[in-house]
Amino acid sequence: MKNYLLALASLLLISHQAKGQEVKFEEFDLDNGLHVILHQDNTAPVVITSVMYDVGGKDFGGTADAPRTGFAHFFEHLLFEGSENIARGEFMKIIPANGGRFNANTSQDRTYYYELFPSNKLELGLWLESERMLHPVIDQVGVDTQNEVVKEEKRQRYESPYGKIFETLGANLFEVHPYKHPNIGYAEDLDASTLEEFNTYFKDYYGPNNAVLIVAGDIDTAKTKELVKKYFSEVKRGPDVVRNFPKEQPITETKKAQAFDKNIQIPAILAAYRTPGFGTRDAYILDMISTYLSGGKSSVLYKKLVDEQKQALQVAAVNIPQMDYNIFAMFALPLGEVPLDTLLTEIDEEIVKMQNELITEREHQKLINQFENQFVNANSNIEGIASSLATYYLLYGDVNLINKEIDIYRSITREDIQAVAKKYLSPNQRVEIEYLPQNDEQ
């Protein structure tokens, strides 16, 4: 019955939020540096408690002499093992037993945990997240258990068709920045890591001053403040995180590469560019460009290569968001015997048109409409609101983007689109990758 009520409440909340009204919130800081954002909406009896940590795949564990990849993703799993007050394996049982659900995810730039509960379980959600932050149990049993879990996840992900594409993009686009390594890391790094290294990593990155706590939904703001103080004030401040990643030199000549995948039968062509990080205006414009090129079946590349010329089974242009550098990538699967270079030539033809001609006013208005719809949908439920509040605070440095980011897209002109296409999307600024089936000799 609790799960039914939770689902019904979520549907009611989605309907309410879809109107796109202003998201109101309140912020405060604890003495230990934990930033807290509260969003009260009593429309439905649900509440989300979530914490986003400023740590991701780009933050290596180990030492300067022996850096270890994959630690942040590993901790996404490890911090569900238990705490001094939660027995091993019980964390993931307590939540559904109380009518809730949970999840966590890690990117190259941050790690995010959340629990969605009936609102009368708010205190439980806060206690669980404080236990994760205050005194998790990080021991050899947990490390060994999660090592196998991560290895299995990697097998499933990388052994699926085209599963190595993101690793391939990073490895070929970056020379010195840690984005060149996969977020999930390398098995040999985790195997070689010591328990001391894992404990050090937790102390370095999982302090309250390197995190933001979001409580959103059916709450009383004053009471919630007191509960937050009750459960999080005793957490000790961690060391300040200082990053000084090396800068990449611009790509000035076309780079060509090949990658092989034993799990595919149809080759693919990739063209990838290293572009400004997601907080820049140019990154917003590149979002629009990627949508113009392949955002749905009415987009330029889909209509041309899939529908009309029947040269491709699939085509996509994506602007992959990262803090330091985005990845703007184009991908196509040939139909039949169409050569990969033919697909790339056809794609380039559309980019050159963007560089030489303004897109039409009708196409421009269609893009604005698409992004307005996307913006409303992103904040149409309590989970989306909580994630947006955390992301805009921790990664963008402006929580109020939850209300005004759409104005950035609305301000983008046809001339802006043309200028950014010229600035970043020339062949001499990219890596061209033939993604090929692997045979027994390779």
TrEMBL record:
Keyword Hydrolase: yes
A molecular function GO annotation: metal ion binding
Domain named Peptidase M16 N-terminal: residues: 64-181
Entries under Pfam families matching the protein: Peptidase_M16, Peptidase_M16_C
Limits of the Peptidase M16 C-terminal domain: 194-370
Gene3D superfamilies listed in its UniProt record: Metalloenzyme, LuxS/M16 peptidase-like (3.30.830.10)
Domain of life per record: Bacteria
Keyword entries, A-Z: Hydrolase, Metalloprotease, Protease, Signal, Zinc
Signal sequence extent: 1-20
GO biological process: proteolysis
UniProt key word Electron transport: no
InterPro entries in UniProt: Metalloenz_LuxS/M16 (IPR011249), Pept_M16_N (IPR011765), Peptidase_M16 (IPR050626), Peptidase_M16_C (IPR007863)
Family recorded in the similarity comment: Belongs to the peptidase M16 family.
Name by which UniProt lists this protein: Putative Zn-dependent peptidase
Organism: Winogradskyella epiphytica
Lineage: Bacteria, Pseudomonadati, Bacteroidota, Flavobacteriia, Flavobacteriales
